[in-house]
Design brief:
heterodimer, A: mainly beta, four-stranded antiparallel β-sheet, 11 strands, 53% strand, B: 110 residues, mainly beta, six-stranded mixed β-sheet, five-stranded antiparallel β-sheet, 55% strand
């Protein structure tokens, strides 16, 4: 079982470029999440989707958009990348009824 | 909104010493979870505590949930180099997503 798969694993962008980070799960979980992780800042929630067809803002949504394409896939889009968005991005799912979260391996994104 | 504070931010220990990280929430929690992230890796679920005053053990790791369900701790006995990483607590309250603490980074000196 792959669990939670994120693509790409690494990416370098120039300021102003756009990009979509992909996340797919085979765990049949309803809830999916996007986080960014910066040194000393822990995991900050960008957007989440409690179920197919719904999305909600998290703590740091500015500069990002998301799409819950179906139950399996939840993508994160940077429309106009900025150096402040250099970070490690994690996608996660959650087991039903307040269960454990399962994280992908992350996408390491650098914006020059 | 709900906040989860975690201390210390960093801890350096000699191999064989004990280690404790503490987590405090601004609101009463329905449950608390702990995760471990190895350097260069992703967070991995360790355990969930639900009941007031609950204590759970996993080998050398002991997890506690406070009586008021607003604080928690993770204690590692006799640390090993395999314990290196960042430990996160995450609190659940109502129907909002988990709120993660900023983590405690543990270094173990052999």
């Amino acid at each position: 079982n792959a669990g939670v798969t994120q693509t790409p694993k690494f990416q370098v962008l120039k300021t102003g470029q756009s990009m979509t980070l992909q996340c797919a799960q085979d765990m049949n979980h309803n809830s999916m999440y996007w986080y960014r992780q910066d040194p000393g800042m822990g995991l900050r929630l960008i957007y989440y989707s409690a179920s197919e067809g719904t999305t909600d803002k998290g703590e740091v949504p500015n500069g990002y958009n998301v799409s819950r394409l179906n139950k399996r896939e939840f993508s994160l889009r940077l429309e106009s990348a900025a150096p402040s968005q250099t970070s490690v991005y994690f996608c996660a799912t959650r087991q039903p009824v307040k269960g454990a979260q399962h994280f992908g391996d992350g996408t390491r994104l650098s914006i020059l | 909104g709900q906040q989860v504070m975690q201390i210390p931010q960093y801890q350096h220990v000699q191999e064989g010493e004990d280690f404790t990280t503490y987590c405090n929430s601004s609101t009463t929690l329905s449950n608390i979870q702990w995760y471990k992230q190895r350097p260069g890796g992703h967070p991995v679920f360790l355990i969930q505590l639900v009941k007031s005053g609950e204590v759970k053990k996993q080998k050398r790791l002991t997890f506690q949930f406070g009586e008021a369900k607003k604080n928690s701790s993770l204690h590692i006995t006799a640390t090993q180099t395999t314990d290196v990483g960042t430990y996160f607590c995450a609190g659940d309250s109502g129907n909002t997503p988990l709120v993660f603490g900023k983590g405690t980074r543990l270094s173990v000196i052999a």
